[in-house]
TrEMBL record:
Belongs to the MGMT family. It is found in: Cytoplasm. It comes from Georgenia subflava. NCBIfam families: ogt. This is Methylated-DNA--protein-cysteine methyltransferase. Involved in the cellular defense against the biological effects of O6-methylguanine (O6-MeG) and O4-methylthymine (O4-MeT) in DNA. Repairs the methylated nucleobase in DNA by stoichiometrically transferring the methyl group to a cysteine residue in the enzyme. This is a suicide reaction: the enzyme is irreversibly inactivated. Its EC number is 2.1.1.63. It catalyses: a 6-O-methyl-2'-deoxyguanosine in DNA + L-cysteinyl-[protein] = S-methyl-L-cysteinyl-[protein] + a 2'-deoxyguanosine in DNA; a 4-O-methyl-thymidine in DNA + L-cysteinyl-[protein] = a thymidine in DNA + S-methyl-L-cysteinyl-[protein].
């Protein structure tokens, strides 16, 4: 049975959804696009997922660059391949949708499919879909909104200067 916890962050309240084994299946922001019906999240218990809450707090405090959590996102094989590739984009760096497609060994026609899979990533922040930008260097869609994407990218800037 699924359960969830709510935790505060600089980008608003985050909802951490996990399964009965304690694996994190999703992290959603307020007004998150593609968020399923919250009634599917199971019981709320804000004491659950202490490692996820701690690691997210460390990330926002600038003390964590990678997450070490049991993850179990729900998606098809292609989506999971894309999400896995996202985890290999280093902290503080960005990739374009085309670069992500190439890293997956896909042709240029796959850019839209990669973008769609990226947009359905249920593990925002932990699986860093915010690190993917348009080919022209501009910010493109983000399930939590472009202001949050900008905040996350600026947070990861090595010199602390705003990039976007």
């Amino acid at each position: 049975m699924a359960r969830h916890a709510m935790t505060d962050s600089p980008i608003g309240t985050l909802t951490i959804v996990g399964d009965e084994d304690g694996a994190v299946v999703a992290v959603y922001m307020a007004e998150h696009r593609n968020m399923p019906d919250p009634r599917t999240f199971g019981d709320r218990d804000d004491t659950t997922f202490p490692d996820a809450r701690r690691q997210l707090a460390e990330y926002f405090a600038g003390r964590r660059k990678a997450f070490d959590l049991p993850l179990r996102p729900v998606g098809n094989d292609f989506q999971r391949r894309v999400w896995d590739a996202l985890t290999r984009i280093p902290y503080g760096e960005t990739r374009t949708y085309g670069q992500l497609a190439t890293a997956l060994g896909l042709s240029g026609q796959a850019v839209r499919a990669v973008g769609t899979a990226n947009g359905k990533n249920p593990l925002s922040i932990i699986v860093p879909c915010h690190r993917v930008i348009g080919a022209d260097g501009h910010l493109r869609g983000y399930a939590g909104g472009l202001e949050r994407k900008r905040f996350l990218l600026d947070l990861e800037r090595p010199d602390g200067a705003a990039l976007f």
